[in-house]
Design goal:
The protein has six helices and 22 strands. The protein has 369 residues and is α+β, with helices and mostly antiparallel strands. Strands 2-11-15-13-12-16 form a six-stranded antiparallel beta barrel. Strands 1, 17, 18, 19 and 22 form a five-stranded antiparallel beta sheet that branches. A four-stranded antiparallel beta sheet has the order 3-10-8-5, with no helix packed on it. Helix 1 runs antiparallel to helix 5 and helix 2 runs antiparallel to helix 3. The protein starts with a helix and ends with a helix.
Amino acid sequence: MSRIKKYKWWIIIIIICCASGAIYYINKNNTDANMQVVQTTAMAERGDISVTVSGTGQVYADDQVDLQPQVAGDGLDVVEVTVTNDQQVSKGDLIAVLDATDIQKDIQKSVLLVRSSEIQLKQTQKEYDKQTEDDKYMRQLKEVSLAQDQLSLSNAYSDLEDYYIRAPFDGIVTGLDVSTGDSIARDEILASVITQKVHAVIALNEVDAAQVKNGNVVSLTFDALDGVEATGVVSKVDTIGVVDQGVVTYDVEIAFDSPSELLKPGMSVSAEIVINEVKDVVTVPAEAIKSGRDKVSFVMIKESTGETKRVSVETGLSDDVIIEVISGVSEGQEVVVGSTTPSAQGTAKKSSSAGSIMPMSGPSSGRRN
């Protein structure tokens, strides 16, 4: 019985070895099949490439003047306000009138002085009508006195104009915060007049600002105006930057081509500035461009036979997604972008389940005899 039992164990060992060899062979074949490289390709196409930098900022009126009293003293009374906020005005339109009682009295006094000087001059001319030196001096003294009084009257009328606040240019009234009967100080702002024409100012970091030039084309969007877009050009780049917590930024001014009527000063704006672009050029995905040890750029072109060949290329502008190919690749050629290897997890699972055919009850079967 012991010899038969020994033979049975040898048979079991042989079966296990054969099964293990079969499993290894199957796994190897499946793994080799799964390790086949799958190439991702793309067609060389003709198109445009733009490189941009972006920034955020605000909309500003092209010009703004804050209207303040030009007369001396505090507690100036407002006797009339002729406009309302957001009203359009023309240059010279009356905005408000201040109490001019004192200056009007000065004007009346100056008028009387001029009249008196005129009478005195006539009397002097009549009394001193000779051509003697003394007569000439007397007439000249009265002429000078009259001129002085006329100048005082002219100055008084000029001062009176300071009590009438007028629009400095065509624009829109904003910030009006006074009414008839209010009392204001000399340094207080009655209202502001802004131009209807607006521009945008955005902040760029020093790296981006160094690439921006006057005339660069800009696309703009606005937080408050969903779906509204505008275009413009860079009109000014600050020469000196502003340092805030170690970060340097430069303001860039943008002139609108044709701003929307919905735009208002103070609105937030986002801008995309085109710093470089090419049009109607051959492009491929940037990932398709490789570089060898010799630093020469190349692509792998897939031919109609399915084979690939290496071709040296000269590249141009890139936006990090696609890249311009100046030479080496023609429109319509298929280039290799990348390659992948399928996962062998499925095969591993199959192998694991196949291993369950191995006998697990060898020792117990020997005990039955």
